[in-house]
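1st attempt posting a full record on here, be nice pls
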Amino acid sequence: MASGLPIAGLIACSGYPHPDWQPQTPLTRVLLTHGTDDPVVPYGASEEVARRLEEANGDVVLHGFDGGHTIDPALFPLLKRFLRQSRSATQPQE
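the predicted structure (as tokens):
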């Protein structure tokens, strides 16, 4: 999951960890979104990704929402805010 890559942040929607996946450093900021009623990828899969990232001292937020395997347009303000914050965190200070 993009760990170790020089990016400002990562958004994963309805993600899951591959069996042998472990976060690599340096860790980037991560926002996980997942429908709590997802019939395709269980919500617990994102909980497991969050747990592994937290154990590696990662900056991770898991945002569950009512719904299934979808990207709910109601999430767009959250995604936009995360992208802005991630970008500004990597900009050089004047």
